[in-house]
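Figure S4 source data
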Amino acid sequence: MNSVLPIGSTMPQAFRFVGLDVGGTTMKAAVVDDHGRASPSVSLPTHPERGQEAGLETMCETIRRAMTAADVSLEDVAAIGVATPGTMDLKSGYILDPPNLKPWHNVPVRDHIAKVFGKPTAFQNDANAAALGEYWVGAGAGVRSLVMFTLGTGVGGGIIWNGEVIEGEHSHGAELGHMKIEMTNPRLCGCGKRGCLEAYASATAVVKRTEEALSDAKPSVLHPILEEKKLTARAIFDAAKAGDALAARIVDETAAILALGAANLMHVINPEMVVFAGGMVEAGDWFLQQIRRHIPNYAFPVPAERTQIRFAQLGSDAGFIGAAACARQLVRGAFRR
């Protein structure tokens, strides 16, 4: 996690931090105290099509509104954390060429925020930040190491080891959605490569795999939904719960794929906990139990038995809480347990 500490900045006696989570559609921010408790959050539309200068100003305005909502002044804030998607250079504090923030290019996020507010500013990948948020006050509260898979349009990831985010030497650590899980007849991923976990287990991939299966399947409750062009991952999971055989097969295969991804990380770093976050966790404990059931098929017995497998707890708040956690680390250091 990289930072800028402006010369002459002062620290308030009661530590508070602003966390900002920048998404392709909205920006969300809140003031978070030293114990991870968040004030009411605020959101503004991102409108990336308006350009990066407008985007930087929207970031600043979201931060200002978060402080207003929390009834705190800038003097009450110890540091600011910003989490963004896309390719980035964490050491320099730049977003490079983010696919879902086009036409932004080489955006000096960290330095801009630090200059505007005169506060120590942390900059982090959004999935890494969300993982740190869950580690701090979410599903991982109390553990020393955590791996998180974020299941949405794509598959994001974060790895926290003894309170530190694993960023990697070139800012591309913990890209869990792009580990290779199939190379015999690999699917094409949105990243342009083949065989990635994301190409099989994201919400987008679950829908695509279902569409392919429905093309020559026996009657399914999903056929009319497909014809109406309303097929979603939620509809597929609901159909599986209701007993539809094809949907149940797709969901079970997805659980097995995610278990394989988790087992790969168990064998590489042996974390204390694996967490799944994102829209698909709304399927509930039933889906989590399916993932757990497949873990022994891929992992060594000891990690299969001892690694905790859980769903995230913070929902969409994880990003700004994690961004605030990054800010907190500038002042407090890593979370040592």
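Figure S5 source data
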Amino acid sequence: MEIDIQLIPVPLSPETLSERIVIVIDVLRATSVIVQAISEGATEIIPVETVKEAFEKAKAFPEGTTLLGGERNSQKIEGFDLGNSPKEYRSDRIRGKRIILTTTNGTRAFYLVSSGKEVLVGSFFNLRAITRYCLSRGEDLLIFASGDEGKFSLEDVVCGGMLIEKIAEEGGSVRLTDAAFASRILYERFKGNPIEAFYASHHGRDLIKKGFEEDLLYCAQSDISEVIPIFRQGAIRLYRE
């Protein structure tokens, strides 16, 4: 198994993607929201790139079945039901509902990697489950760090490094690209204390300024969910064998 990580969120060729399982990571906060929502009983999450697209897509579904969630400039969007804080996505609010989600970085990432052999959703919440799934498949992997408005994102790469370490420790023979090796080294710097990476990152500091420090603490929790969300045909649903 070869493991690579995309350190900057740029488009990749369909040929490159089609040979690999892709794990999308946007720890602060889109993929944490998605894992949380699936864990709390949402039927599916439909990621879209624009606010206009979210409103238009919602019109296609029966009233009462669909919620709008997401952010712009880290804040809840006017007219939306939910923001981009994982704690908002509680079972009493979302169970049995479809969520149309748009965020600055994470939802766009799914369309950049939609040609992947499989496209999974990862965060600190479900890395153990993702590790087991990837080891069971034995396929080459690409971790796609969603980044911060097109730039390198410390927290996403640290999360990717944690996934790489888990797979390497449990799976024996893996080949790491230089980027994956660097990501694993970076994770070692924050091992046991991922919240430190959040406080050090540009996006983490920005969220604190905007009043979302509790989200950093929440998103740093490891292995609190066993769900494996998978992106297929424009929607993210719980993986079922």
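The chain is about 40% helix and 20% strand. The radius of gyration is 17 Å.
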